Amino acid sequence: MTTTLLQTTPGPNLTPEQLELQQRARTFVENVLMPLELQAEELGGKLPEDTVQTIKREAIAARLNGGRFGPEHGGQGWTMLEWFLVNEQFGRVTNGLHWHVPNAYNVLMQGSPEQIERYLVPALRGEGGDAYAVTEADAGSDPSGISTSATRSDGGWVINGEKWFVTSGDVARVLIVMAVAARGGDRLPTLFLVEPGSPGVEYVESPRFTHNYPHGHPTIRFTDVEVARDAVIGGVGNGETLQRAWFTEERLGIATHGLGAMWRLLDETVDWALHRVQGAHRIMDYQGVSFPLADSATDAAVGRLLALQVAGLLDAGSDPKLIHAKASMAKLFVSEAAGRCADRSVQAFGGRGYMRSNVAERFLRELRVDRIWEGTSELQRLIIARALERRGVEATIH
Ligand SMILES: Cc1cc2nc3c(=O)[nH]c(=O)nc-3n(C[C@H](O)[C@H](O)[C@H](O)COP(=O)(O)OP(=O)(O)OC[C@H]3O[C@@H](n4cnc5c(N)ncnc54)[C@H](O)[C@@H]3O)c2cc1C
């Protein structure tokens, strides 16, 4: 009965349907994903295939797959607010276990009907996802320096280059590759769909990273890889525009997951501090323990208001450039705050906080990358500073 649900968290007024969705996501996270965290950690992030299939089935049964995509493609057609409510729950889990929930990058919506049918629809059913390849050895924070090239051929295009840190590149059914198409003297950044099994696609390395997550981030080389004319997604030269929309959603996603992480960290740490007794007192009674938790609660509450504002602006169809800057602000604030929050929790757990079986220890490692990927904290500051100049102080901070 949706009407019996209580709105227990601060934020916008939610409809009974939205409260039911939030509760459905919470139940999935607590019953299906959280019990698998320690196994995932022990296995370096890679769960057995039958377990992965079970997670996918449960996610689909709970109608949590393909959230932002339309029902006609197998998604749920959520608003950004609804997407926020679900992703906040996903963020409460360690080891990136929510990555197993079938989904796809939003740029696939810009594909042709054939591309959507071939890659998006199966991805939302849990039958092979996508990976996004922009970064190169010499082009990270400044992607305008990418050197991967796409040259016209009789049948379509020939791609040459090497991409680094391709998240999920090891399991993806399709790679979304940013390459520069040359026309006359112009450099036209363009997104191409490349199947990993194509001749000339080579997996150079799959490095180990700080976190133990479900998928790797391999280095992939493209040598004379031939793709068809219709492998272009969103039109020649539109790569950067599509990427801006992609970044906005990804950065808000990082903020939203970070909020879930802070929520979980506070739940677990407050519970511990209320029950752990040392020197004849609960450690919560020592301000050295309780004040850092008060700071974490304040970080979590402020970050939530900011991220909810960005979600609301997206739902209202506000100025995309302003939203872009606000999403950077949310990512910057929450990723830095969540890192602080994890560090405080480790301290409150004492020696137990340094054990991999402890949620704070895992989050301390896992949240670190949120200050690096989808643009480092420094790059977010650059975007926000530019907004101050171009959109004005009032629009940027209100
Ligand atoms: C686990 C992981 C997964 C990733 N997944 C993907 C993926 O799926 N697809 C993809 O394309 N990329 C991915 N990346 C790449 C990621 O987006 C880049 O690592 C990030 O953008 C930074 O680029 P870089 O590593 O080349 O660092 P650099 O750009 O070399 O930056 C090094 C340092 O210099 C600072 N810096 C650089 N320029 C400026 C400036 N103008 N002002 C101030 N400071 C500056 C940076 O903030 C940073 O501290 C992933 C990275 C990691 C670690």
Helix content: 40-55%
**Total individual domains:** 3
**Overall pLDDT, averaged?**
95
- In the CATH hierarchy, the architecture of the largest domain is Up-down Bundle
Going by helix content, strand content and strand pairing, the class is: alpha+beta
List the bound ligands: flavin-adenine dinucleotide
Order of helices and strands: HHHHHEEEEEEEEHEEHHHHH
End-to-end distance: 38 Å
Percentage beta strand: 5-15%
The CATH superfamily of the largest domain bears the name Butyryl-CoA Dehydrogenase, subunit A, domain 3
Largest sheet: 8 strands, mixed
Which residues sit in consecutive blocks of at least 5 with pLDDT less than 50?
1-7
The total beta strand count reads 10
Shape: globular
Radius of gyration: 22 Å
Counted by DSSP, the helix tally is 11
CATH class term of the largest domain:
Mainly Alpha
The CATH topology assignment of the largest domain is Butyryl-CoA Dehydrogenase, subunit A, domain 3
Q: What does this 3D model show about the protein?
A:
- By secondary structure, the protein is an alpha+beta fold.
- It folds into 3 domains: 9-103, Acyl-CoA dehydrogenase/oxidase, N-terminal domain (Butyryl-Coa Dehydrogenase, subunit A, domain 1), CATH 1.10.540; 130-236, Butyryl-CoA Dehydrogenase, subunit A, domain 2, CATH 2.40.110; 240-397, Butyryl-CoA Dehydrogenase, subunit A, domain 3, CATH 1.20.140.10.
- The chain has helices at 16-33, 37-42, 49-61, 80-90, 113-124, 239-275, 287-315, 320-349, 359-366, 377-390, 393-397; strands at 130-133, 149-152, 156-163, 174-183, 186-194, 201-205, 219-228, 232-233, 277-278, 281-282.
- The strands form 2 sheets. Strands 1, 2, 3, 4, 5, 6, 7 and 8 form an 8-stranded mixed β-sheet that branches. The protein has a two-stranded antiparallel ribbon with strand order 9-10.
- Strand 4 (174-183) and strand 5 form a beta hairpin.
- Helix 1 packs parallel to helix 4, helix 4 packs across helix 6 and helix 6 (239-275) packs antiparallel against helix 7 (287-315).
- The longest helix is centred in the middle third of the chain and has 37 residues, at 239-275.
- It is globular.
- The chain binds flavin-adenine dinucleotide.
